[in-house]
Each structure stands twice: as C-alpha cells, then as structure tokens.
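Box S1 | Example of a co-folding query
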Amino acid sequence: MTARELRALDTADLEARVKAMYEQVALTPEHEFHFETGRGLAEHLGYPPADLDRIPAAALDSFAGVGYFLDLAAIAPGETVLDLGSGSGTDSFLAAVATGPGGHVVGVDMTAAQLAKATRLAGDLGWTEFREGYIERPPVEDGTVDCVISNGVVNLSADKPAVFRAAAAALRPGGRLALADIVTDQQLPQGITCDASLWAACIGGAAQREDYLAAIVAAGFTVETVRDNDYRFVSASALGATTTYGVRSISLLARR
Ligand SMILES: C[S@@+](CC[C@H](N)C(=O)[O-])C[C@H]1O[C@@H](n2cnc3c(N)ncnc32)[C@H](O)[C@@H]1O
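Box S1 (continued) | Returned holo structure for S-adenosylmethionine
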C-alpha cells in the first residue's frame, strides 16, 4: 500500500471499525456478518472434528478464521507458539492441545472483548495466555518462539511487512510461520480499499498474492508450501468484490 493510499485510509477509524466488528464476533457470534463464523465454518475448512471436540465450544462459536493450516504448523509437544490475532482462541487452544502442558501458547489481540473471552475460556489449558497488543509489534521476547500462527488477520493490517518482520523477530532460527489469510488475484481499487466495512470484513485490506508472499520472503522467510482454501464470503457486497478481484483464502508454511 502506497503512502498516498494509506493517507486516504483513516487508519484510526479502521482500527475502531475492526475492533467493533470483532467485539461483536466475540459477544454475539450468532449475528450475521459479511463472513461465516463458528464450528460449521471450521469443519468446512478442514479442521478435524475430533480436535475441535477438545477445545471450549464457546471459543469455537466465535471462530472467524479463513483456512486450516495447523497440519502445516505441525506443532510438537513442548513448543512455544505465538498466535497473531488470536480472537476468541480457537487456534491457540488447538495449539495448546498439541504443545501439551510442557509448552506455552501466547495469543495476541487488540480487541478487549476477544481477549476477555479467550482468557475466560483458557480453563484447563493453563499454559495458554492471551496478551493485549498489536500484531505489528507483538508483546513477546525476540527469538523465543518455535512457531508463529495466524488465521484471517494479517489482511486486516495496513502494514503487512511490519507483521512479517515482527514474526521473524519473535522466532528462533529455523522457526516456522504457518497461517491462513485472504489474498487477491488483482490489486483492489481504492473504492474497496477505502471501504472500512469491507476492510474489517477481511476483503478491503487483502494484498495481491505475489506481494503478500514477497513481503514474507523480504522478512527473511523461505516459503515452503502455499495452498488454496475453499472459503466463501456471504454478504452480497463481499461476494461482488471477491468475484471481480479474485479475493481468496490461502494457507501457507514458511521457515525462518
Ligand atoms: C478475522 S478475526 C480472526 C480471529 C481468530 N484468528 C480466529 O480464527 O477466529 C481477526 C482478529 O484479529 C484481531 N486484529 C486485527 N488486526 C489486529 C492488529 N493489528 N493487532 C492485533 N489484533 C488484530 C481482531 O481483533 C480479531 O480478533
């Protein structure tokens, strides 16, 4: 995104809109959004139902991810995991099941209601903690994380290169970045990138696929796997933009 485009987009207003939308996802997940939410969405994306049975159902009610990627992450017992934009905690809790109590999972999110919900639900998975912060500068010590995960979040950042640089800094050498996110075939026009509602819905901020991958490589990663996901937006305005500009979901694995 150019400096001119960033000025055209009021980033403070955008942050407020994103927070408002995901506060609603935390508090009233049954509400209709531009996108699907919940266990049905997770199963459709390929999350194994037996894994979903092992995490709090209320976390899953507010799941708003865009793809399955935990097979790529291959999280092992004892590992330290950082979840960027952890929301109500679905992927953090699944990561915690994989690390076991000898590991540590830190979820970072900027929306208070999401953090409160995830923290309240952590219960038996006490080695999971949720910290308030921004994915562009997550509150973790450099070089301490084995695997950074994220689901449907980096597209919401106006500074994607900063997010990937922060992920690289958090990781130990050889650490992994595994995520699912929204990208586009074509550059989105300003009419869409400046629509705060479409941005908060994970469309307006989506980068062109090649630019997105290039930003990961520029941060010092080698991209090992990229695959397409069967993800669909639901509102008419979201569907219009996705068809015209090839807005779609990918999962990927990259190594530092
Ligand atoms: C689409 S939801 C996905 C939540 C979760 N990963 C999931 O799969 O259910 C996006 C989340 O990212 C958070 N978020 C968006 N931009 C952020 C930023 N710059 N820093 C921290 N959190 C952010 C929102 O508050 C929201 O909880």
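The chain has a mean pLDDT of 93. The first strand starts at residue 80 and ends at 84.
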